[in-house]
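Bench notes, afternoon.
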Amino acid sequence: MTDQRHVLRPTYTRDGVRAVAPRLQIPDGEMEPTSAYQLVHDEVMLDGNSRLNLATFVATWMGDEADRLYAEVYDKNMVDKDEYPRTAAIEENCWRILGSLWNVPDVTDCIGTSTVGSSEACMLGGLALKRRWQLARRTAGMSADRPNLVMSSAVQVCWEKFCNYFEVEPRYVPITAEHPCLDGSNVEEHVDENTIGVVAIMGVTYTGMYEPVQEIAAALDALQERTGHDVPIHVDGASGAMIAPFIQQDVVWDFRLERVHSISTSGHKYGLVYPGVGWVVWRTLDALPEELIFRVSYLGGDMPTLALNFSRPGAQVLLQYYQFLRLGREGYTAIQQECQDVAKYLARGIADIGAFDLWNDGSDIPVFAWQLKPGHTENWSLYHLSDRLRMKGWLIPAYPMPDDLGDVTVQRIVVRNGVSRDLADDLLADIRVETEWLDGLSSPMPVEGLRPSFHH
């Protein structure tokens, strides 16, 4: 029988809600469910508004039908393919669709998988590069104990983790003002017989710029002619692999380049799905060493698995298929184009303020960065502007560039689905107001406690 005392008493006079919620130990007794809900609900009110978080690439909006589907399938375990065979089939549909979108030579001869995110997808791409290199070296009777991976110094931290966790020497090609991304111009200085591969980024997280995969491949082709070193490319397309196929089809970056062995992307970025899904596809079956695929008996079935995680959500995989069906090529093109148009609109507006120099204008992925004009002011920095905007609800990160450009501080905006032209105009107005306020200072702002507001 329902305890009418809980039903009738106002929420904030109930016993559970009148106490401070435990932080370090599980409570001894139970709590009425609506009270537990209210406590957690109120705690997360202190988080920022995700729609105003222009630091994150991660999708923050999908729509009512997707929300309803999510609620219906949140209990599905992606690894349990015997129990959820249709979810498993839909997963395969998705990575084959991506393979086709990325111009794989034969969609029936490729292989892929879903992952928890693009970081796990990168790890799998890196592992395949390492294992193929090891197998080739051992077959030739050579040492296979000193692998290295060549990449830009502006890579996302998941690649640093990969090299650390899986004992691969990272070889970073420094970005400079003249070469703001890995462009193939000096890649040969870092490649040798122990190089397992080169990482090319379609959408550098610091600035949003594409690394020219075709030029990198051409440099590696020339290197192979001179040295015999056959070095494959993994394309980290966390963002760009879901942008370029729709609005930049003339950019050659994908499996049209024979040197590209694998591509990873994030379904929960410009794949337009809520957080929790990434993808990786290999151009052919033999690009992924068979020994990286485990076949296990699970709940009465024989199940191949090649992800690092075992149990993981199936809901986001279904949401990805929903988006493919719902939007199609036409819908994805419209959304990605609008995101780019809004990014360019914002970039023009920020450039017009006069205090800033753009690093780029959102012409690659809908992301751009800017820095203070040299000599503009000694009284404030972009960290101060970031703090002023945060007071109005906007999260616009400020951070230093990597390595050789470590003395350069930039701010960056990520335009995602849901950042409308109207919302962008509100943001521009706030940036103008706060820049004018900072420019009016008669003495320097304090610098204590200032720190980067985003980490790569």
